[in-house]
Amino acid sequence: MPSTKPQLDSLLDQITSALPDGWQDLRGDLERNLHAALRSALTKLDLVTREEFEIQREVLARTRAKCDALAEQVAELERQFLKK
């Protein structure tokens, strides 16, 4: 799983900065609990890493190019066959 630390930290900062003044004393505990809850929720998701995604995107692009080339070959063969 890719590192989500910067995104989690940003989200936690947004949440804790929105706390009312009286709740700022609980900020540390809240951050730890929210961080654990978010980390747990994210690990339960069936996610792929950015690297895995990019690899699959490249494979798909190559496959699409081959498919397009084969479609063109079939079209050319059909044109040749129809001429006869």
Molecular structure report:
This protein has three helices and no strands. The chain is mainly alpha-helical and 84 residues long. Helix 1 (5-17) packs across helix 2 (27-44). The chain is rod-shaped, with a radius of gyration of 26 Å. It starts with a helix and ends with a helix.
Summarize the helices and strands and which ones pair or pack.
Elements: H1 5-17, H2 27-44, H3 50-83
Give me the oligomer status. Answer: single chain
What is the arithmetic mean of pLDDT? 84
Order of helices and strands: HHH
The main sheet comes to: none
SS-derived structural category: mainly alpha
Q: How many separate domains make up the residues? A: 2
Distance from N terminus to C terminus (CA atoms, Å) equals 58 Å
What is the count of helical runs? 3
Low-confidence stretches: none
* Count of extended strands: 0
Outline type: rod-shaped
Gyration radius (Cα, Å) is 26 Å
The percent of residues in helical segments reads: over 70%
What features would you highlight for this structure?
single chain, rod-shaped, 84 residues, 3 helices, mainly alpha
What does this entry show, briefly?
The chain is an all-alpha fold and 84 residues long. The chain has helices at residues 5-17, 27-44, 50-83.
